[in-house]
Amino acid sequence: MAKKGEIVAGVLAPHPPHLVYAENPDQNEPTAECGWETLRWGYERLRKSLSEIDYDVLIVHSPHWRTQVGTHFLGVEKFKSLSVDPIFPNLFRFHYDLTVDVNLAQGIHDEAKGAGLVTEMMTNPDFRVDYGTIVSCHMTNPDWDKPLVGISSNGGARYFNMDVLGATMLKLGEATRKAVEASGKRAVLLASNSLSHRHFTTESEVVEDMSKEHINNHNQYLWDMRMIEMMRSGKGQQVLDVMTDFTEQATAETDGGSLTWLLSALGVPDYPATLHGYGTVIGTGNAVMEWRPGQEARA
Ligand code: 2X7
Ligand code: FE2
Predict the structure, then answer these.
(1) Do the domain assignments include residue 266?
(2) Which end of the chain is less packed: N or C, by CB atoms within 10 Å?
(3) Which helix (H) or strand (E) holds 74?
(4) Using one digit for the tens of pLDDT, what is the confidence trace for 167-194?
(5) Domain range spanning residue 176?
(6) Which phi and psi angles does 81 have, rounded to 5°?
(7) What confidence category does residue 299 fall into, taking pLDDT thresholds of 50, 70 and 90?
(8) CB-CB neighbours of 65 under 10 Å
């Protein structure tokens, strides 16, 4: 019998382009002196943690690949181009060259379609991959030596409401888990989103001047801390229960559905997530957090 696949880790993996900018990788044109270290060190801890496990593929759900209707999947094996952030072209001009696990993408697509979701494989070879996907993947695996599955987010939270989007993302998460199990592969899932997401509308002269960086408002900070504490104490269902209020009251980037998708794919964790780091980027709240299904069973 074929080996059963599994989700070996799930990560809340935020994608401010500032993090890649401050890392100064060869692929990015602009260069920085420093910046956002608490988050970048958080990603460093994540990478160290993931280096302890074997995995075959990264599956990333991105708020910045926005398909207004339904869920789309990258469906071409190779994408190579220049990604320029539309808001921060001064920080992010990234030359990417990535490989997609099209078989697994098709498997998740088929499971999701079977569950009644509106789905599409994206087969345009000239498609420009969004910076949400690229930043989360780069910060998690800067060697780019694993294939990825790219999943779009949709506009359901605005067109309908957050509860409708949430119900769809719960189904998408279950479909993802079933397809991973059927594939025989070991997958790491990335929910590519910030927590609170109200941000500044002006930029300081030196973008990486950390004396200017702080949370946009106290309400956002309180919400971020509450969500992090729930995740750190294994209250996955409670996180889902407050997701709509959090999203609306903290203007959170969870409106793309990435975190709901992740929690569902993990079977709604009742075990703690590890917080690798928290920090603000132009006033938004960002946490790098990791769930390891089965870890407590092994312990
Ligand atoms: O897309 C983003 C984000 N989510 C948070 C902060 C800064 C920039 O871009
Ligand atoms: Fe974003």
Answers:
(1) yes
(2) N
(3) strand 71-74
(4) 999 999 999 999 999 999 999 999 999 9
(5) 6-298
(6) -175, -170
(7) very low
(8) 24
- Expressed in angstroms and rounded, the spacing between residue 5 Cα and the centre of ligand 2 is 30
Q: What is the DSSP letter of 100?
A: B
Cα separation, 133 vs 153, whole angstroms = 11
State the ligand closest to the CA atom of 66: 2
CA distances from 269 to 66, 169, 233, 239 (A): 27, 16, 10, 10
Domain count of the chain?
1
Take atom 7 of ligand 1 and give the residue whose Cα is closest. 16
Instruction: Check: CB of residue 54 under 8 Å from CB of residue 187.
Output: no
Using alpha carbons, select from 128, 133, 91 the residue that is nearest to residue 256.
133
Q: In this structure, what CATH number is given to the domain that contains residue 13?
A: 3.40.830.10
Instruction: Show the tokens assigned to 217.
Output: 């408002």
Mutate to test the pocket of ligand 1, among 62, 281, 288 (most ligand atoms within 8 A of CB): 281
* Strand pairing category for 71-74 and 119-122: parallel
Domain annotation covers residue 273? yes
